[in-house]
């Protein structure tokens, strides 16, 4: 008889001679999931081999758990018969993490237990506490403060995706079915998903250079997650380059960054954020890159590369929010985000990187320097004659509007009027701009 593979909540030991390792497994599973099962008398591959079981062996298991696992837990320890063989089954749970085994702390990773550093432990339980306490907590928004149009849109997308049955759904049905109600209020998850209280903030900007100095456009959006997903996607697509390809007899416009990549990144950004923190979601579009910033420290103990290789199971900071995004098909699969993004970027030869910070996670998509058939371009990044950062900034502003004074350019670039004037003269000498009109009422025309 074979019970199948070990998992993050299921562990096998051949005999009670592996007692120390068993205690480590119990602690690591408790720290990761809060509940689990362990068998003595089964091989790691799931084959039932059995072992001698007596009252003393059951007491030995109980005593070791009592002495090793701190804080105290109260497991169910029973003898069972599987395929005619005796085994010991230990079922355990606890909500008083962190748990230690022999004074050391461990976390479950797939079917393995690994000892963690104090820094990892602190980060894990900070995330875990946030997850337990925040999503189901009562928000300040009443049930009347719901965006009914957003709820209706969610239902239609979820039905079209085949992830909820076809039918008529009212706001109360959706809110109650998915645990988004607390007394007469929305839960925190309910408010950020469907509230009309502008619960989530997104900053979006286009910059003249790859430094965050001179912005050409900037907006602050306040809305719920589902509305912001659409707003953010539209903003990025409106401000990146498009190429034209003739496929068959049809003219097709293709963005420099695949739409599927943008959607996956945005959905994961909103799914894994910390919403009671101090920073905002942020999109920055530079000539050489697009960055998507998610507030809150990185939500997993595994590097993105481990997810790309498919070696680890997903860790979800906001399971309720993630579930709702999955049902509406904003997220394709749980735990597949990095793998999917990596595959799509490789297909389109889009380079990317990421930065893990204490207060947020930033994903960086690098833009190609030259693309033919550019559509809706507001600035260039390739110059025949090298330009310094100030010249690039001034040129980008002039491409937006030629009817702008030196003083206004200076304010936008955080430079002095004298510095702006030198940049204008230099750009004219290099053949990028020329003066049009009388001196007092002149404007600058961009030549290239």
Give the overall form.
elongated
Alpha-carbon distance between the termini?
Answer: 75 Å
| Class computed from helices, strands and strand pairing | alpha+beta
The largest pleated sheet is described as: 6 strands, mixed
Into which percent range does the helicity of residues fall? 25-40%
The proportion of strand residues reads 25-35%
Number of domains: 4
What is the averaged pLDDT score? 84
CATH-derived architecture of the largest domain: 2-Layer Sandwich
Number of strands: 21
Q: How much is the radius of gyration in Å?
A: 28 Å
Given this structure, which CATH class of the largest domain is correct? Alpha Beta
Lateral arrangement of strands in the main beta sheet: 13-12-16-17-19-18
Fill in the CATH topology of the largest domain: Heat Shock Protein 90
Low-confidence stretches: 371-383
DSSP helix count? 14
